[in-house]
């Protein structure tokens, strides 16, 4: 049997999670931008981990946890990631048979079209169909055009990847909107404050704890990178996750700026607070520190002066982001 949901949607974009949410919302008739979906999900975050048993041993990530489930919750869907057993393939196909798209987490190492030699679990794609004869699933993936084919075995392995950076457990969400959604003018203030609270109070996801305090920890530890055997890869990986890996050039901060620019046209208070302008400044700082990490990674030996400069820049980011989230919570009154 072969099944592809009629009128499936895929609009290529920047980030796997926000592209997937935008595709699903468009399928259900809500033509929101990728930036709007990212902002409603509260996609800003920051993780920092030090673990000698993996490489990079000093690792950063700049997106927050639970963006997809936060997004759906604010839209009135009390949704958590579901976990399937080894029959996950059959479970996903049951929803597709009902014309319900499914969001999954996978590891790009098992997606043949990426030709990746490294693991990256937690990658988000939407599933729109399957072909039993060819034993393939049809998925929509971030910047790629059209639907990609994933062999059944690779589909299973990707969803159950146990890479230590973010072990997966056949995580999926079936997305079915059968009721009208509240106006964006109601949802947006809640979304901004929710993301701000998570950053100030900290929250935990598959990669550990996320929050602004982790930016401060990173700033304090950056000079110690000179002693890491894989200092070069730590620096290069940091540059990549801030600048290159579907993050819009500034650790997702410019995607969030674009969300705020749209929101300011709907909600006068947000324009008065000039939040988009402040996020633009924060994004420039993230871009600068990424390029500095790139320079460090290209040195023959650890450059203590550059690491010290990176440390100071990271501390400035901690201050700026702390001020931004504090102002958002103080000034915006949801509801």
Could you give a short description of this structure?
The protein is built from 12 helices and 11 strands. By secondary structure, it is α+β, with helices and mostly antiparallel strands.
Would you mind describing this structure in some detail?
With 335 residues, this protein is of the alpha+beta class. The protein has two domains: 125 residues, no CATH class; 148 residues, no CATH class. It contains twelve helices and eleven strands. The radius of gyration is 20 Å and the shape is globular. The N and C termini lie far apart (48 Å). The relative contact order is 0.15. The mean pLDDT is 95.
Beta-strand percentage range: 15-25%
User: Assembly state here?
Assistant: single chain
Major sheet: 7 strands, antiparallel
What characteristic shape results from the CA principal axes? globular
Mean of pLDDT = 95
What is the SS-derived class? alpha+beta
Would you report the number of β strands? Answer: 11
End-to-end separation: 48 Å
**Would you identify the regions where 5 or more consecutive residues have pLDDT less than 50?**
none
Determine the fraction of residues in helical runs and give it as a percent range. 40-55%
Instruction: Please report the number of helical segments.
Output: 12
Give the helices and strands, then pairings.
Layout: E1 2-4, H1 16-27, H2 34-40, E2 44-50, E3 58-63, H3 67-74, E4 82-83, H4 88-97, E5 102-107, E6 121-131, E7 136-140, E8 148-151, H5 152-159, E9 171-174, H6 184-201, E10 203-205, E11 208-210, H7 212-221, H8 231-243, H9 253-266, H10 268-273, H11 275-297, H12 304-331
Antiparallel strand pairs: 1-6, 2-3, 4-9, 5-6, 5-9, 6-7, 7-8, 10-11
């Amino acid at each position: 049997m072969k099944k592809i949901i009629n009128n499936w949607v895929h609009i290529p974009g920047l980030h796997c999670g926000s592209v997937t949410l935008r595709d699903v919302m468009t399928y259900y008739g809500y033509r929101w931008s990728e930036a709007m979906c990212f902002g409603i999900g509260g996609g800003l975050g920051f993780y920092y981990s030090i673990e000698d048993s993996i490489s990079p041993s000093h690792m950063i990530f700049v997106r927050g946890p639970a963006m997809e489930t936060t997004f759906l919750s604010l839209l009135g869907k009390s949704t958590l990631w579901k976990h399937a057993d080894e029959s996950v393939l059959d479970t996903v196909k049951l929803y597709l048979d009902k014309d319900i798209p499914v969001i999954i987490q996978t590891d790009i190492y098992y997606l043949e079209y990426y030709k990746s030699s490294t693991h990256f679990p937690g990658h988000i794609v939407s599933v729109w169909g399957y072909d039993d004869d060819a034993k393939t699933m049809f998925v929509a993936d971030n910047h790629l055009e059209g639907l990609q084919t994933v062999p059944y075995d690779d589909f299973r392995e990707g969803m159950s990847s146990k890479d230590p950076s973010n072990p997966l457990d056949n995580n999926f969400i079936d997305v079915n909107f059968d009721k009208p959604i509240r106006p964006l003018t109601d949802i947006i203030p809640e979304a901004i404050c929710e993301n701000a609270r998570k950053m100030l109070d900290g929250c935990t996801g598959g990669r550990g704890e996320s929050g602004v305090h982790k930016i401060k920890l990173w700033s304090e530890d950056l000079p110690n990178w000179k002693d890491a055997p894989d200092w070069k890869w730590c620096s290069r990986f940091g540059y990549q996750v801030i600048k290159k890996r579907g993050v819009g050039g500034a650790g997702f901060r410019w995607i969030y700026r674009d969300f705020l620019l749209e929101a300011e046209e709907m909600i006068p208070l947000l324009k008065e607070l000039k939040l988009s302008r402040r996020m633009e400044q924060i994004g420039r700082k993230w871009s600068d520190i990424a390029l500095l990490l790139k320079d460090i990674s290209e040195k023959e030996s650890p450059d203590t002066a550059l690491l010290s400069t990176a440390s100071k820049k990271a501390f400035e980011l901690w201050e700026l982001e702390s001020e931004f989230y504090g102002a958002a919570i103080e000034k915006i009154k949801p509801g």
